[in-house]
Amino acid sequence: MRTLIIDDSVVIRRFIERLLRQAGLDISELHQAGDGIEAIEILKTVGSFDFIFSDINMPGMDGMEFLKQRRVQHLAPTVPIIMITAEASETLVARIESAGASGYLCKPFTPDQVKACLTPHLSAHARPSQGGQ
Fold it and tell me: What was the pLDDT predicted at 130?
Protein backbone atom coordinates (compact mmCIF):
# COMPACT_ATOMS: atom_id res chain seq x y z
CA MET A 1 0.00 0.00 0.00
CA ARG A 2 1.07 3.53 -0.77
CA THR A 3 0.57 5.68 2.31
CA LEU A 4 1.03 9.34 3.19
CA ILE A 5 1.33 10.39 6.83
CA ILE A 6 0.92 14.10 7.65
CA ASP A 7 1.95 15.29 11.11
CA ASP A 8 4.25 18.02 12.37
CA SER A 9 5.88 15.55 14.77
CA VAL A 10 8.45 13.13 13.33
CA VAL A 11 7.92 10.94 16.40
CA ILE A 12 4.17 10.67 15.73
CA ARG A 13 4.78 9.92 12.03
CA ARG A 14 7.11 7.05 12.99
CA PHE A 15 4.60 5.86 15.60
CA ILE A 16 1.81 5.75 12.99
CA GLU A 17 4.05 3.89 10.56
CA ARG A 18 4.85 1.32 13.25
CA LEU A 19 1.16 0.90 14.13
CA LEU A 20 0.27 0.36 10.47
CA ARG A 21 2.83 -2.40 10.20
CA GLN A 22 1.73 -3.91 13.55
CA ALA A 23 -1.83 -3.92 12.20
CA GLY A 24 -0.57 -6.24 9.45
CA LEU A 25 -0.77 -3.73 6.61
CA ASP A 26 1.70 -4.14 3.79
CA ILE A 27 3.19 -0.68 3.33
CA SER A 28 5.01 -0.75 0.01
CA GLU A 29 5.64 2.99 -0.19
CA LEU A 30 5.51 5.54 2.62
CA HIS A 31 5.68 9.30 2.29
CA GLN A 32 5.67 11.78 5.15
CA ALA A 33 4.77 15.46 5.37
CA GLY A 34 5.20 17.90 8.24
CA ASP A 35 2.07 19.89 7.41
CA GLY A 36 -0.68 20.29 4.83
CA ILE A 37 1.42 22.51 2.56
CA GLU A 38 4.06 19.81 2.20
CA ALA A 39 1.36 17.16 1.75
CA ILE A 40 -0.27 19.09 -1.11
CA GLU A 41 3.12 19.29 -2.85
CA ILE A 42 3.63 15.55 -2.38
CA LEU A 43 0.20 14.85 -3.88
CA LYS A 44 1.06 17.07 -6.86
CA THR A 45 4.37 15.31 -7.52
CA VAL A 46 3.81 11.72 -6.37
CA GLY A 47 0.15 11.38 -7.24
CA SER A 48 -2.33 9.17 -5.50
CA PHE A 49 -2.08 6.97 -2.43
CA ASP A 50 -4.07 4.11 -0.98
CA PHE A 51 -4.47 5.94 2.34
CA ILE A 52 -3.66 9.29 3.88
CA PHE A 53 -3.37 9.86 7.63
CA SER A 54 -3.43 13.47 8.74
CA ASP A 55 -3.16 15.20 12.07
CA ILE A 56 -5.61 18.05 12.54
CA ASN A 57 -3.53 20.52 14.55
CA MET A 58 -0.36 21.52 12.70
CA PRO A 59 1.41 24.80 11.99
CA GLY A 60 1.44 26.04 8.42
CA MET A 61 -1.59 24.32 6.94
CA ASP A 62 -3.62 22.28 9.42
CA GLY A 63 -5.47 19.09 8.62
CA MET A 64 -8.85 20.71 8.02
CA GLU A 65 -7.38 23.18 5.53
CA PHE A 66 -5.51 20.29 3.89
CA LEU A 67 -8.85 18.52 3.33
CA LYS A 68 -10.28 21.69 1.80
CA GLN A 69 -7.27 22.34 -0.46
CA ARG A 70 -7.13 18.73 -1.61
CA ARG A 71 -10.78 18.99 -2.66
CA VAL A 72 -10.41 22.43 -4.30
CA GLN A 73 -7.33 21.30 -6.25
CA HIS A 74 -8.86 17.92 -7.16
CA LEU A 75 -5.94 15.97 -5.70
CA ALA A 76 -6.46 12.27 -4.96
CA PRO A 77 -10.24 12.69 -4.65
CA THR A 78 -11.00 9.02 -3.99
CA VAL A 79 -8.22 8.36 -1.48
CA PRO A 80 -9.52 7.66 2.03
CA ILE A 81 -8.22 10.18 4.55
CA ILE A 82 -8.10 9.26 8.22
CA MET A 83 -7.81 12.25 10.53
CA ILE A 84 -5.85 11.97 13.76
CA THR A 85 -6.98 13.97 16.75
CA ALA A 86 -6.51 14.21 20.49
CA GLU A 87 -10.17 15.15 20.92
CA ALA A 88 -13.32 13.55 19.54
CA SER A 89 -16.11 15.93 20.43
CA GLU A 90 -19.30 15.61 18.41
CA THR A 91 -18.65 19.03 16.91
CA LEU A 92 -15.16 18.07 15.74
CA VAL A 93 -16.31 14.71 14.35
CA ALA A 94 -19.06 16.50 12.39
CA ARG A 95 -16.49 18.98 11.01
CA ILE A 96 -14.15 16.12 10.04
CA GLU A 97 -16.92 14.28 8.21
CA SER A 98 -18.29 17.37 6.45
CA ALA A 99 -14.77 18.30 5.32
CA GLY A 100 -14.51 14.99 3.45
CA ALA A 101 -12.50 12.75 5.74
CA SER A 102 -13.22 9.03 5.63
CA GLY A 103 -12.74 8.53 9.37
CA TYR A 104 -10.74 9.51 12.40
CA LEU A 105 -8.57 8.03 15.12
CA CYS A 106 -8.26 9.46 18.63
CA LYS A 107 -4.80 9.62 20.17
CA PRO A 108 -3.55 7.38 21.59
CA PHE A 109 -4.66 4.51 19.37
CA THR A 110 -3.71 0.88 18.91
CA PRO A 111 -2.96 -1.33 15.89
CA ASP A 112 -6.40 -2.92 16.33
CA GLN A 113 -8.09 0.48 16.18
CA VAL A 114 -6.10 1.36 13.04
CA LYS A 115 -7.11 -1.89 11.40
CA ALA A 116 -10.78 -1.43 12.37
CA CYS A 117 -10.77 2.09 10.94
CA LEU A 118 -9.17 0.97 7.66
CA THR A 119 -10.99 -2.33 7.10
CA PRO A 120 -14.02 -0.88 5.25
CA HIS A 121 -11.68 1.02 2.94
CA LEU A 122 -9.36 -1.95 2.39
CA SER A 123 -12.15 -4.02 0.89
CA ALA A 124 -13.26 -1.10 -1.28
CA HIS A 125 -9.69 -0.71 -2.61
CA ALA A 126 -9.29 -4.43 -3.21
CA ARG A 127 -12.31 -4.77 -5.51
CA PRO A 128 -11.07 -2.69 -8.48
CA SER A 129 -7.59 -4.25 -8.49
CA GLN A 130 -9.02 -7.75 -8.28
CA GLY A 131 -11.31 -7.00 -11.21
CA GLY A 132 -8.36 -5.96 -13.37
CA GLN A 133 -9.53 -2.38 -13.72
Answer: 35
